[in-house]
Fold this protein.
Amino acid sequence: MAATAPQQVRVMVLPFPAQGHVMPLMELSRRLVDHGFEVDFVNTDYNQARVLASLAARGEAGAAAHAGINFISLPDGMGPDADRNDVVSLGQGLPAAMLGRLEELIRARSTRWLVADVSMMWARDLAATTGVRVAVFLTYSAAIFTLRAHIPKLVEDGIIDESGDVQRDERIQLSPKMPAVAASELPWTHVGKNPESRRALLQSAIKDKQAYALADAIVCNTFREIESEALALLPKEPLVIGPLVASKSTSASHFWPEDLTSISWLDGQEPSSVVYAAFGSIAVFDTKRLQELADGLVLIGRPFLWVVRPNFANGVDEGWLDEFRCRVGGMGLVVSWAPQQRVLSHPSVACFISHCGWNSTMEGVRHGVPFLCWPYFADQFLNQSYICDIWGTGLRICADEQGIVTKEEIKDKVAQLLGDEGIKTRALSLKSRACASVVDGGSSHQDLLKLVNLLRKQ
């Protein structure tokens, strides 16, 4: 009688339902599948429909059925016309909408491990009801994690109140080699539409502190060489496996179809000539800021690739974009969504005008691209501090008295950035260290193997 093959370990992966959270957890899922795991990847119904529509638009409907990854979708508790960019409201409704169904799935599928996004820490309650073991995945930097844990001290010191409102605006730095951030730019300051939602966010962060200590593992999308001091402040020894950069197509995690004409267009440009501008999945510009950005890209006098996703600008339609495309001709290319990692690795790209989300930050670091930093909200201001103050691989872009980044500021800062050989050298050095961390024997690769061994344990 033939021997029975060992049963694959089943892992459930639970991202917060936003583009920047789904992407890195999909990358981790692919790595787990490569090591023999079966993964149940949980999207919301709303986002799964977007992924499938994106795949269909590119003729890749079958890509959703990645071998070893089973896609599950659940309701998010919001109405069909609700604003899902209001991440506080979205997050508050998820436990009631999902917990019961997740418990059923874990029991029915004999799931051993749950890898939960740090923004889904309520899911740790499933450990008590189902016996599942829980690994917390940080979708932002270790520095942000430690800053969130520092909230009670910030309140005690009178820097913020219990609603997160700034009482004394000063720069906060938890350790000499960690980034500093102004109190007015703390991660929760620009999140939520009212004081009540910010207060709820802060109270949730304080409550989650205990859950982190009880988790079976903390997994970080960073690498030790750039965040050693922040990592040392985590509540337990973390597994540091970043940067999680795609080794293959990640179409099954994108909410918009990637426009591959951007790659063929880059192929026709000179080395280190193109300015790449992209602001992630949530940032929204008004008409004035959009026009200044558009005029600034033209004023630079270099070829540029600009990502303008469908909901990027208020009051701007496709007609405006068509007029702009005609105006710039072959000097610039405007796309609705780009294969960003392929763009950043392209030899024609000279710099990255970025909102400084953690995924974009890690991708830029991995490919050695200098940054022009234009943060929007949440952790992006602290990431800017890493880039400009700690690593020295980019520059801040500054708004005027009216809060507008002018076309002249864009032109001048790009010229300053690309004329600074020190920034280029440091960006390439950081790239070398990032690459070394993920190859066989590197610190992140070793921690990935530790994670694999941990997940295989009963």
